Amino acid sequence: MVLVQAQPAVHTRSQEFITKVYGLMAGGLALTGAVAYTTVQSPEVLQAVKSIFYPLLLGELALVWILSASVHKLPAWAAALMFVFYAALNGLTFSILLLIYTEESIARTFFITAGTFGAMSLYGLTTRQNLTSVGSLGMMGLIGVIIASVVNIFIGSSAMGWAISFIGVIVFIGLTAYDAQKLMKMADSVDPGSERGKKAAVMGALTLYLDFINLFLMLLRVFDRR
Q1: Element (H, E) at 162
Q2: In CA terms, which of 24, 93, 152, 166 is 20 to 30 Å from 160?
């Protein structure tokens, strides 16, 4: 009788954890979009963002690294605040995309990204197949994409850039499914109301947020309507 009662309780906690993770991720995306749109509406702010664009990018990378490295030492509220700050900072840099690409291209790519991300997340959350090998291949592919992107900065090949973006789409599709399954496994072992559970939810949201953002960027480059 005890076991029969415990199983629904664990299942409920898992659902609560997953809901919290995806809710945080969606909130981060909404904040990024709102900041990007608001920035474009102000020429003064947009000009300031242009002048410090690369320092902002470096700041984003540093913030993600600091959050990932120190999340276990931080209180849950501080980790959540850093995630919110990162999403807002990302909105500033994303405002430049609104100047480079057409609104139609951005809107279409966003909906394609949302559909693809949703489908792969659902697959990762429900499949019984172990996706560990997919995650390993995805990480190796990601390293390759990063190295190739750095090389292409000096080469400036449009064909190579398109190939990198296409491979990047495949990489982040696989990582989305893998990360979703990893979160589902984690959900069975954490209490979403505990300090550890809250920190895990923030890191899970950050991971999915990065998957979504990078998938969106790769798809935007593949379609490339400026």
Answers
A1: helix 158-187
A2: 93
Centre a 10 Å sphere on the Cβ of residue 174 and count the other Cβ atoms it contains: 23
Q: Kindly list the distances between the CA atom of residue 51 and the CA atoms of 34, 58, 92, in Å, as whole numbers in the listed order.
A: 21, 14, 12
75: CB partners within 8 A, 6+ apart: 195
Cα(11)–Cα(79) distance, integer angstroms: 26
3-state helix, strand, coil in the chain (%, to 5): 85, 0, 15
The CA distance from 141 to 222, in Å, is: 17
- Identify the sign of the CA torsion 94, 53, 76, 136: positive
Confidence at residue 11, expressed as pLDDT on a 0 to 100 scale? 65
pLDDT band at residue 110, thresholds of 50, 70 and 90? very high
Cβ contacts of 35 within 8 Å, gap of 6 or more: 87, 88, 90, 91, 92, 94, 95
Q: Is residue 56's pLDDT more than 70?
A: yes
Give phi and psi for 129, each to the nearest 5: -75, 135
Cβ contact 205:21 at 8 Å: yes
- At residue 214, the pLDDT reads 94
User: How does pLDDT run across 62-76, given as a tens digit for each residue?
Assistant: 888 988 888 888 899
The Cα–Cα gap between 189 and 132 comes to 18
Question: In whole angstroms, what is the distance from residue 180 CA to residue 176 CA?
Answer: 6
